[in-house]
Amino acid sequence: MSAVLVVHGGAWAIPDELAKASVDGVKAAARKGSVVLRDNGRALDAVEAAVKALEDNMVFNAGHGATLNVDGEVELDAIIMDGRTLNCGAVSSVKNIPNPVSLARAVMEKTSHVMLTGRGANLFAESVGFSTVTTHALVSEFERKEWECHKTYAAGVLEDFNTQWTHDTVGAVAVDSSGNVACATSTGGIRNKMVGRVGDSSVIGCGAYADNLSGAVSCTGHGESILKVTLAKLILSHVEQGKSVADASDLALQYMGERVQGGGGAITVSPSGKWAATFTTQRMAWAAAENDVLWSGLDPNERKKENLN
Amino acid sequence: MLPVVVVHGGAGHIPKERAENSTSGVCSAVRLGYLVLQEGGSSMDAVVEAVVQLENSPYFNAGCGSVLNVKGEVEMDAIVMDGKTLDSGAVSAVRNIANPIQLARLVMDKTSHACLTAEGASKFARSMGVPEVPQESLITEYSRMRWKKNLAPEANPVECQMGKMGTVGAVAVDKEGNVACATSTGGMLNKMEGRVGDTPCIGSGGYADNLSGAVSTTGHGETIMKVMLARLILFHMEQGQSAEAASDLGLAYMKSRLGGLGGVVTVDPRGNWAARFSSQQMSWAAAQNDTLHYGLYTGEHFRRSIRDTH
């Protein structure tokens, strides 16, 4: 069967000035990940490669380009999950690591745990040879300026408009030619978040989930809302009940909007290669590689097609 | 049928010499939770009250009595969730406070976030006037002994897990039909520094939704996370399974898919409840209709009037 990789670069009201860079970024990441899938590559390797590419890209709020917490520091969250075994690795509130998704994978493969946080996660990174970068290297000038500017707003003011917040978490899902699914999500969190705030991205079943029996999901959007409805697992529970990946994603996102007034997006893939990129926010930058086609989109119902190679 | 509160003191293998303290601990906690409910208190107040009791008791792996991480230090996780609004609050890897469950509730009530970790959680605690306690006050001789034993290279980690005291938790339905859950733990014996288990992860350590019910879990954390045990049980209840059947289905799946053992306390909005476990034991107690229910070993179900002060 043909392998599929879907990637997202965040669901939010992406401004026009960031639109092209966001779409270019997800397409480049999808291309990188699909190279891994070729020649019977593993879904797990593909999602890691795709998310690394997004983390390395300053445009997105993950790894390089991450947003700042209230103290002006970068704290990163990431998760990766293997649908075949349900093995999972996650890190929350980790500092100065350029590729948190790779650290999450190391937690999964080199420890008997699923999740490490804070200083413990950084100590582990050091123990397995991950190099660090300065906070300065991770933060864009644009972000630092935005952070200065937003510091003057009370957090409460922004809350009512959670769909307007920058939510450019990144993620990827894939199914390989063996029918194994995998997912990965990575983020710097919300700008001006409290120190130590953990959103959905590193929480299993919320920011992401993968199970060969149903599929793989990676989510983006208002983190606290995604947590409340355990969005990734909710989508897959609909798939288990017989819904298509598109319908399952629509239903779950609709529910999140109605029940807790949260906006977001999700990319979903089934073990048989069906996929969907769905969102209730104004925009979501996404791309999908299937056979030799690269699909991408930004605005609702938009689907552009081009050659993968 | 309402109100109801069900409490657990951990699933695993509770050594005989600690069994009595474990049972009396959960019974005390459930009595206090029930009192809150009888006086018209919310299910959230009741579960927090019950868990605070268990955190304060040295006989459980939460607050005082927490297991130690590999460095011999205490790092705690906790979660609360409100079934009416789906609001939740959680803390992970927090140090030097007596009641992580109360801090978790403050995260829910006083911030726009759902989870704070490590130093950030401590910073928030300070800002809320939560007193910092010396680590020594949380460490018991028993937990220190288990930690030392487990450091030995020939220690069998699985076997050593079996001897640990358990995560604690509670679920309740109040007179208004609102459900809530609370779970608190010191985590896994000799865990890596910064290891976060299922407890503060919504859907894994606990979940509460007025549309289906509330669950608090205990057992092998990593396995509970991989199957999202609390949410899984509630999905079954949404599809019409009873609290007991859904709990058994969830636990059976965890065992057959991943070989992991655990236990849960579950309640639905109508007051049906269950205390189920796939491990050897789980200390649990429930209060409903002025009756105290409790047990420890599989198949045990004792009943007494809640007024019996034994």
Fold and architecture overview:
The complex is a heterodimer of chains A (309) and B (310). Chain A is of the alpha+beta class. Chain A contains ten helices and 13 strands. Chain A has helices spanning 16-37, 43-56, 100-110, 118-127, 135-138, 141-150, 155-159, 223-228, 231-240, 245-260, and strands at residues 4-12, 76-82, 88-94, 115-117, 170-175, 181-187, 208-211, 215-221, 264-269, 275-279, 283-290, 293-297, 304-307. In chain A, the strands form two sheets. Chain A has a nine-stranded mixed β-sheet with strand order 4-3-2-6-5-1-11-12-13. A four-stranded antiparallel β-sheet of chain A has the order 7-8-9-10. In chain A, strand 11 (283-290) and strand 12 form a beta hairpin. Chain B is an alpha+beta fold and 310 residues long. Chain B has one domain (4-219, 231-246, 261-305): 4-Layer Sandwich (Glutamine Phosphoribosylpyrophosphate, subunit 1, domain 1), CATH 3.60.20. In chain B, strands 4-3-2-6-5-1-12-13-14 form a nine-stranded mixed β-sheet. In chain B, a hairpin with a 5-residue loop joins strand 5 and strand 6 (179-185). In chain B, helix 1 (16-38) packs antiparallel against helix 2, helix 2 (43-56) runs antiparallel to helix 3 (100-110) and helix 8 crosses helix 9 (243-258). The longest helix of chain B has 23 residues, at 16-38. The A-B interface holds A 75, 86-88, 90, 92-93, 111-121, 123-124, 155-156, 159, 193-199, 203-206, 209, 223-224, 227-230, 233, 237, 259-260 and B 75, 85-88, 90, 92-93, 111-121, 123-124, 157, 191-197, 201-204, 207, 221-222, 225-228, 231, 235, 257-258. Strand 4 of chain A pairs antiparallel with strand 7 (195-196) of chain B. Chain B: Belongs to the Ntn-hydrolase family.
